[in-house]
């Protein structure tokens, strides 16, 4: 979860209750801008072995790109990126 504090700091609440304070300006980042696309990625873990073998698979279509990469016999890195004209609901 991300919250803004009155002092201008951003509080990032991480897994298991960890907290991190960061200042965008202090880190040298400019104000964020929306760039008309959204992306998600992750790492899937299969304790008994992933079913895809050691390979790379990409899917391309108009406005969307997705795929996965086998990085071991038990783990898959996956991603999806797509065009989006708005940020969606807040």
TrEMBL record:
Keyword Oxidoreductase: yes
A single MF term (Gene Ontology): monooxygenase activity
Key words of the record: Monooxygenase, Oxidoreductase
Highest taxon of source: Eukaryota
PANTHER family xref list: FAD/NAD(P)-BINDING OXIDOREDUCTASE FAMILY PROTEIN, FAD_NAD(P)-BINDING OXIDOREDUCTASE FAMILY PROTEIN
Protein name, entry field: Uncharacterized protein
Organism field: Arachis hypogaea (Peanut)
């Amino acid at each position: 979860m991300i919250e803004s504090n009155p002092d201008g700091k951003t509080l990032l609440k991480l897994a298991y209750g960890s907290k991190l304070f960061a200042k965008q300006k202090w880190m040298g980042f400019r104000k964020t801008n929306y760039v008309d696309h959204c992306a998600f990625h992750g790492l899937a873990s299969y304790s008994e072995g992933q079913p895809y073998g050691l390979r790379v698979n990409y899917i391309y279509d108009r406005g969307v790109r997705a795929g996965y990469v086998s990085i071991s016999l038990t783990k898959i890195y996956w991603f999806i990126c797509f065009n989006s004209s708005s940020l969606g609901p807040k």
